[in-house]
Amino acid sequence: MTQRLRLLETPAATAWLTARGFPYRRLPVTPDLGNQALDRTPTAHTAAPLPQPAAVLEVTAPLPRTHALDHELAAARCDWGWWSPSWNFAALRLFVTDMDSTLITVECIDEIAEAVGKKAEVARITEAAMEGKLDFREALTARVALLRGLPEAALTPIFHQSVRYTPGARELIAALKAQGVYCLLVSGGFTHFTAPIAAELGFDAHVANQLEVDPEGRLTGRLRGPIIDAAAKRSALQAAQAKLGCTSDTILAAGDGANDLLMLQEAGLRLGYRPKALLLPELNLISMTAGLALPLWLCR
Question: How does DSSP classify residue 149?
């Protein structure tokens, strides 16, 4: 199927195209329906709205996609997609997204670890797991063990103080909900965070790990129930897809790390927000500076 490279018109994109000498044309941007549908009620977790780009730039010469080219675009801080004629934002029926470092700007387990004085140690394990250098289940078990003894009550202030939505997150979800898309939040993080986020943003369902709490109200350092790893994320997407009876080309999935790989492979539109290098070949929408709003501009 024919693919064309499309970039948001930014100084970085224009400079990259000029330096490479690729011919391109400017395409007008459809009015941002996410902003039109957005509930303007302020919240403590809301990011500043993103400015709407003036245009989308489409390379007009044949340009085969290569791993090196994607890395070059990422290094230049461009926002791009490998556009296909099959893309149809209005036809989407299912949206599935990761939470940590995708829907929100932080890794929740790292923020929790700060409360027990172990943020640096936990953050190192988190980064290695996201890059695919460590088994996710083993890395999660090791990190959760370091949280033992923290009062469960401490999680609420950590949520309010640390969580900020990625720019464009509320706009994207507002646009999707306005056209009846089923929205599912699937996280290798914790239900203490996915539950309030899902309620605030209007997700239809959420799936995440459950922290075990002892009778004294303190974390035991263990999880309760199944671990939400890459396979579990994929299964959650497939269950929602079966419930809706929709095809892969009507699914948008978003993620950033190794634990999102299997889930992303099930979707027709695969969005990465500042993704780890191992994900780049699997993505067709890559956002470095445009937050989660990129599909609103490139997929219409």
Answer: T
Q: Which position among 32, 79, 98, 256 bears the catalytic label?
A: 98
d(CA 175, CA 98): 18
Annotated catalytic residue 135: no
Per-residue pLDDT, averaged over 154-161, amounts to 96
How much is the pTM? 0.93
Q: So what's the pLDDT on residue 279?
A: 94
**pLDDT tens figures, 168-202:** 999 999 999 999 999 999 999 999 999 999 999 99
Q: Which amino acid is at 268?
A: G
Buried b (16+ CB within 10 A) or exposed e, 125-158: bbbebbebebebbebbeebbebbeebeeebbeeb
Phi then psi for residue 29, to 5 deg, are -90, 130
100 in catalytic set? yes
CA distances from 82 to 17, 41, 79, 237, 240 (A): 15, 35, 11, 23, 26
In terms of DSSP H, where are the helices of the chain? Answer: 11-20, 33-37, 67-75, 108-114, 119-130, 136-145, 155-162, 169-178, 191-201, 230-244, 261-264, 294-298
DSSP secondary-structure letter at 216? Answer: T
What does the alpha-carbon distance between residue 149 and residue 128 come to, in Å, rounded to a whole number? 25
Q: Residue 51: pLDDT above 80?
A: no
Q: Give the 3-state secondary structure of residue 279.
A: helix
Question: Which pLDDT score, from 0 to 100, does residue 39 have?
Answer: 52
Residue tagged active-site, from 100, 110, 229, 256: 100
**CA angle, corner 37, sides to 35 and 40, nearest 5?**
70
Q: Give the three-class secondary structure for 49.
A: coil
